[in-house]
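User: Hello, can you help with two protein structures?

Assistant: Certainly.
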Amino acid sequence: MGKFGRGRYGLPEECALTRPVLSMTGFGRSEGSDDRHQLSVEIRSLNHRSLQWKGRFPPHSQELEAATEAILRKHLTRGALHLSIEIHSLEKRPSVAFDEEMARLYRTRLEDLAGRLGYKESPSLEYVLGLPGVVERLEDEPEMGSLAGLYESVLTAALEMLVEGRQREGAVLATELRGRADVIRSCVERIESRLPEVKAEYQDRLEKRIREFLDSRGHAVEELDLLREVAIYSDRSDVAEELSRLHTHIDELHRILDQGGLLGRRVDFLSQEMLREINTTGSKSADSELAHLVVEVKAELERIKEQSQNLE
C-alpha cells in the first residue's frame, strides 16, 4: 500500500473516500446470554483529548477487564468512556454456609449471660442461626473463562450502538460547522468590499485635516505629499494576505468536513489559524464597521473551537 502525501497544513492527505464525522458523546447498550449466563454492557461516552475508560465490573472479573482495552480501541480513538457490566447466572443453585465458630461463640456468650441473669434455658439453635454472621447465602460465581467470547460479542454490539449515535451527532455538528464557516466567509467578503471605502474615507479625512491646517497658516496643499500619506496608510492597513489566507482556511475546513473521519484536532488547529489572521486584520483596521465584522468572525471562531472539542 502506498503512503499518503502531506497536504498544505502539514497533515497527511487521507484517502478520497468520505468517512463519517464522529461526535465524542454517545450511549450504547447491549445484552446477550449463553446456556449459563446473561450479560449486559452499558457504555457512556463524553469528550476527552484521548481515549480513556473506566468500568464497573462484577467481582472476580479481571479477565474481562483485561480484554476491554483492545476491544475499545478497535472502534474508538478519543473520548472518556464509562462502562457498566452486569452478569447473572441462569443456573440458580443457591447454597448456604455456616460459621460454626461464630455460632459457638454466640452460644458461649449467651449461656454465660443467661447464668449471670439467673436463666437456666440455653439458646435454641433456631435463635443462634438467626444471629448475624452465622449463616451466609452463597451465589455461584460466573466462570469468567467461558464468558470471554460472550463478553466480546456483547461489548462490540454496545460499541456499535454507541458509534452509530456518535455518527448521528457528528453529522449535526458537521452541518453546524459548515454554517459557521459560511458566516465567517460572508464577514470576510464584507471586509473586502468595505476596504476601498475605508481607504477613500481616510483619504478624504486626511486631505480635509491637512487643508484646514495649512489654510490656517496660509499654505497650499501639495498633492504629492497627500498621496504619499495615503500610500503609507494603505500599506500599513493592507490585509489582503490575511484575508486570502482566511479564505484558504475556510476552504480547508469545508474540505475536511466533506472528507470526514477524525477531525477534532484538525478543526481546532484551523480555528486557531483563522483566529490569528482575523486578529491581525483587526489590528490593522481603524474602522468601526470593520471592527464589528472582526468581532463577529472571532465569535464564530470561538464557537467552532468549542465544537471541535466534541469531535473525535
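That covers the first. Now for the second protein you mentioned:
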Amino acid sequence: MGALLIFNECSYYWRLLYVGNSQDGTQMMTFLPLQVCEWIAYISAFMLIKKNRHLYDIAFYISLTLGIIPILTPAVLTGVSFGHYRYYSYWFEHIIPILSVFYMTFVHGFRPNFRKVFKPYAMLAILACFAIYANLNIPDANYMYLAAGTPGDSLANILPSNIWARLAVAFGIVTALFTLVSLPQIIKEIKQKRRKTE
C-alpha cells in the first residue's frame, strides 16, 4: 500500500509534466505539492513502510478528520468525469491513508494518543505557512483553500474571505474535529482515573 501511494502521488505530477494541464507552463505553479491530502498520502506511505509511530500520530488525526471531508464533498472532481485518470487517482489518494491508519491500528497494534495531537497541528501550521506564501506570490494559487473556495460543494466554501478570519475558522474546525476523534481516548482515561480513586 505504501509503495502504491507513492506511485499514485508521483504519477499525478508525471502526468502534469508530460501530458500537461494547460497551454502555458506557468499554471504548473498552481499544482505544487502544498495540499494536506498530498502530504498525508506520503506520510501514510512512509508510515506503512517504516512502521513509524511518529508518522502514525500525524496520519491518525489528519486522515480521520480532514481526510474524510474530501470524500464526503469531492468538489475538485467537479470538472473530472468518470473514467478520467485523476478520478481514480483522487479516490486512491484519499481512501488509502484512512485504510492505512486502520491497518496500523488493528494489525500492528498502534494506538492513538491525544497528548500527541501537537504533531498534526505542527504539520498543518508549517504547511499553512508555505501555502499562504505561495498563494500570495503565485497567480491563481489556492493551496489548502486558504485563498478562496473551490468549485462545487466543499467545506472550504463556507470559510470567510479574509485570510486571517479564514485561518481562525479553519483552526476552530480542525480543533473541533481533533477533539471529536480524541473523545474515546479521553473518556477511557477519565474512567481509568475514577477506578483508581475508588
